[in-house]
Write a structure and sequence with these properties.
Blueprint (H helix, E strand, L loop, with lengths): L5 H8 L8 E9 L10 H11 L8 E4 L9 E4 L9 E5 L6 H13 L9 E7 L6 E8 L5 H9 L26 H27 L14 H12 L27 E8 H11 L3 H19 L8 E8 L25 E8 L6 H21 L4 H6 L4 H18 L5 E6 L7 E2 L2 E9 L9 E8 L2 E8 L7 H19 L11
Parallel strand pairs: 4-5, 8-10, 10-13
Antiparallel strand pairs: 1-6, 1-12, 2-3, 5-6, 7-14, 8-9, 11-12, 13-14
Amino acid sequence: MRQLTALDAQFLHAESATTTTHVAGVAILDPACAPTGAVTRAALIGLLRERLHLAPALSLRLVDVPFGLDRPYWEEVADLDVADHVHETTLPLPGDDAQLAERVARLHERHLDRSRPLWEMHLIQGLTGGRVALYAKVHHCVVDGVTGAETLAALLDLTPEPRAVEPPSTPPPASETPEAGEMLAVAAARLVAHPARALRALGRMAADLDAIPVASALPGARLVAEAARAISGGPSELPELPPLTAPRTPFNGPISAERRFSYGSIPLADVRHVARAFEISLNDVVMTVCASALRAWLLEHDALPDQPLIAAVPVAVRTASRANTADTAGADDGADTVGNRLSVMITPMPTDVVSPVERLRVMGRTMRAAKRRFAGSPATWLGELSSVLPPALSALATPAVFRLASIVLPPINLIVSNVPGPQLPLYLCGARLLAYYPMSVLSDMSGGLNITCFSYDGSLDFGVVACPDRVEDVWRLMGHLQEAMDELVGLAGPRPATRMAHA
């Protein structure tokens, strides 16, 4: 069996009474073109049964090591009944966006049952216009952004007519669950070797010291990082990063178990138009839209700090060499479809800049520097940090450390994520996928606000998740995102006229 990596296990350790660490999304479906004109629970269960082998992450459950002395293992559930994971409900009239968001927020608050494979799907009927919503969540220890998208893609089709899927040619060999004694023996060996591994992890972290929140503010952090990179044979000189000290904001502090959710879309053509007009990337525009919306919300609440907010931007590194990641002992190198292969860029957001044009330009320069730095030396400190403490101690300490950090010195203000998706219509059970609004994790450490967007079929779909103790008016923030995009489109000027073809 495969064992969770240190980073995967960290997503388990971070959970508490107020924190859930699953990723999710809300798919809005139009069943008009479906064969029966509807999307039913029975049809969804049938689709899952037919294609379950295309999404191996959905068949795995955790096997804990006795006394929590080591990271858990994955066990394949051979007799999994997907019906146990699929639920259906109907909204009361009128079935509007606010009702859907409230229902989804309640679902997002709930912890997944760790005795079963860590996923659920909720089919939500009764939306206005005959639409149907599908809320699906998977634990972050199972998937990252890339594998999550691959899992969703296994269920989608390019036409209303579902494609024929061949069953697996040969049944995969059943994985054997190790005996308790075997797991304890491995745990004991790992514990003996842990000090040496922890020292190596700290050494590798030293090379990223000037890119780690809080640590980068320590005197001499850049000199230490340059020396560590030189010793390890890495690049000694990289683009210098701006200060990464997060200011105090209403977003930061201990969170509650409650969640709020809002969602909306902006045309991808508008994002492209602004990017072309100002000669920056699409992601730079998205980050600027978020910075502008955050600035507007903070101004409304008389809480705008005079220094930039600090955001964590997840980066998929699934194609990178496993040799450059943190401790992965126990993981199966041939199974790259489960678990996390991600890093993070820490970047300032120019919420302190008054001019929207200058804010766009500063964001572009900041992101270019962060990308050059990441390309020259991909940050591994997130995985390294997860492997410094022994598993048993990490499981006990993580929630307390997260809560203490939120009170004393928050490392970041929020997480902002932009996930690219397909630019063509897709179908689920014959129903057209109209939009997909992603949802992610809140924690004491990362703050009570998360903004994630997903590009799909000409739109940029935003999902905003917040703790109401930190952001109560989450729909207002969604409105600010749309207003910020409209402002940039106006500043970009008219679109170039389309050239007419001559006969």
